[in-house]
């Protein structure tokens, strides 16, 4: 499953956010540093309002959303790459993830200790990015020696790797995360193999006070500006509100959101941002049993999409019957869509679009 690491300095609201995400008390929030030691992992449904619409039309018994995994990573403080705080163990946990969500404290509350004794979310993010950059620098320099030897001996793969390593080193030495480097499409795979922490797609999450949950505040504006510079995306949430919302049922949630003047829980925005950050989209399968969302990459072809359901579907792919979501809804289901000529037969090279309702034929 796709994994997103939640990182940030102590007491910025990571556990509160993680708890809200997973609706469990597994990651105990507490007002002191280093309270979460083991990485906590939680599976979260990707909010997808279109599934409900499809299920109603088709009379599906069950709705099955896509899922994304969040990992709460603790112990990241200044000096972490040198073994401070909880030391290096968090690095391996992050390396295992597909993207990083950096939580920044954009709320002011004198009762909650700040490890650096001040509220300055951009500097907080810099501390963390710096630790990750130092870790990348160290690992690249360690690997470079052998790589250079092999490259000089004529090894083609090492030559390409060396070129990419030096590109990363140039960025990092200039104080920029590796993700700001421009990598050609052909080099992408080798680049990903370097497994750099600062090359992972990044989302800066501004945790604001309850009154700023909608539009954010001056601090989150600074974070957003910084995100643009670091090649990251940004999103505003109030972890506190979301943790209160998380324990309510749907009707109560709507009522609470209305009182606050919010359109949706901040978490929905966060999950959607993480999803698009990873270049993901959904297609649907719809029947009387279930309406289900499947996660694919933007640009995936029909056989690749089929492969997400089962590898046999990809291997034996013959064709896909496809209805665009809007057509499916406007014509109230598959039968009428077929009559209206809106059910298309698509072959191997079809690039699946977000929201396609699909049936696969395979041998
Ligand atoms: P972590 O160390 O980053 O995991 O931070 P926690 O989630 O444990 O939060 C630290 C403290 O800050 C807890 O007492 C939370 O209740 C509190 N906190 C988290 N988010 C907010 C917020 O948006 N506003 C306020 N006032 N307090 C918050």
Automatic annotation (TrEMBL):
ATPase that binds to both the 70S ribosome and the 50S ribosomal subunit in a nucleotide-independent manner. Residues 279-362 form the TGS domain. NCBIfam families: redox-regulated ATPase YchF. This is Ribosome-binding ATPase YchF. Residues 130-157 form a coiled coil. Gene3D superfamilies: 3.10.20.30, P-loop containing nucleotide triphosphate hydrolases, TGS-like domain. Its cofactor is Mg(2+). SUPFAM superfamilies: P-loop containing nucleoside triphosphate hydrolases, TGS-like. The gene is ychF. It comes from the Bacteria. Belongs to the TRAFAC class OBG-HflX-like GTPase superfamily. OBG GTPase family. YchF/OLA1 subfamily. The keyword Protease does not apply. GO terms for cellular component: cytoplasm. GO terms for molecular function: ATP binding; ATP hydrolysis activity; GTP binding; metal ion binding; ribosomal large subunit binding. It holds the Pfam family MMR_HSR1. Residues 2-257 form the OBG-type G domain. ATP binds at residues 11-16. The keyword Methyltransferase does not apply.
């Amino acid at each position: 499953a796709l994994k997103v690491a939640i990182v940030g300095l102590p007491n910025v609201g990571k556990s509160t956010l993680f708890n809200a995400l997973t609706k469990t008390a597994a990651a105990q929030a507490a007002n002191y540093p280093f309270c979460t030691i083991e990485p906590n992992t939680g599976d979260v449904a990707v909010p997808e309002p279109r599934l409900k619409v499809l299920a109603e039309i088709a009379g599906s018994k069950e709705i099955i959303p896509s899922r994304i995994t969040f990992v709460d990573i603790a112990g990241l403080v200044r000096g972490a790459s040198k073994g401070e705080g909880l030391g290096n163990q968090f690095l391996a946990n992050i390396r295992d993830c597909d993207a990083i969500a950096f939580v920044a404290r954009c709320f002011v509350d004198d009762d909650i200790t700040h490890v650096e004794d001040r509220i300055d979310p951009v500097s907080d993010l810099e501390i963390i990015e710096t630790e990750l950059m130092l870790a990348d620098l160290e690992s690249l320099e360690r690997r470079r020696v052998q790589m250079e030897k092999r490259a000089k001996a004529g090894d083609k793969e090492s030559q390409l790797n060396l070129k990419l390593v030096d590109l990363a080193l140039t960025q990092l030495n200039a104080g920029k995360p590796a993700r700001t480097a421009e990598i050609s499409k052909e080099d992408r795979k080798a680049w990903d193999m370097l497994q750099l922490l600062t090359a992972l797609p990044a989302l800066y999450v501004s945790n604001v006070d309850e009154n700023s949950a909608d539009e954010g505040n001056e601090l989150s504006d600074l974070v957003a500006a910084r995100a643009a510079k670091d090649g990251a995306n940004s999103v505003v949430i109030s972890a506190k509100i979301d943790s209160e919302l998380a324990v309510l049922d749907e009707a109560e949630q709507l009522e609470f959101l209305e009182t606050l003047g919010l359109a949706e829980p901040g978490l929905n925005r966060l999950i959607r941002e993480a999803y698009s950050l990873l270049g993901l989209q959904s297609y649907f399968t719809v029947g009387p049993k279930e309406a289900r969302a499947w996660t694919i990459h933007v640009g995936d072809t029909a056989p690749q999409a089929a492969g997400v359901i089962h590898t046999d579907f990809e291997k034996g792919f013959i064709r896909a019957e496809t209805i665009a979501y809007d057509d499916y809804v406007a014509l109230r289901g598959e039968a009428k869509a077929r009559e209206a000529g809106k059910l298309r037969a698509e072959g191997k090279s079809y690039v699946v679009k977000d929201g396609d309702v699909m049936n696969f034929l395979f041998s």
